[in-house]
Amino acid sequence: MMKASRLKHKDREIAYRKEYRRKNKDKIAEKNRRHRVERAEWYRTWNSEYAKTEKGKAVLRGACHRRRQKVRAGTATADQLLAIKANAKGRCHYCGRKSSKLTFDHITPLSKGGLHSADNIVMACFSCNRAKSDHDPVEFAKTKGLLLI
Fold this sequence. Notes:
Radius of gyration: 21 Å
Number of helices: 8
Strand content: 5-15%
Largest sheet: 2 strands, antiparallel
């Protein structure tokens, strides 16, 4: 009986959950962060075990293959990458701090359709590059307080 009732009001339940997640975004994020920290060792073990299975190996091969294909499709040459690094003058593109360990970052991520071309690559400090991950650069700038729009 309960199943039929839930099916009947499925749209209402979905709307309620969506609204709850919207209103409690910070609370949910904090709960998830705490969970990841508390279970970090379990996740590390699970990931290493999964990577040893046939399916895990295939997933990892596929991810590496897709990334290599996207990089190959781009047009950035080694000389262009060296020029980007020289133009950065040791400063992160996002936060502007000087760092001895800058990394190349795709402004529009490869996973979101960006190309491996000179006009899509900047130098970023490790923390900004890691925080940006595969996010849109405008969204990332807003979260860092770098964009006031």
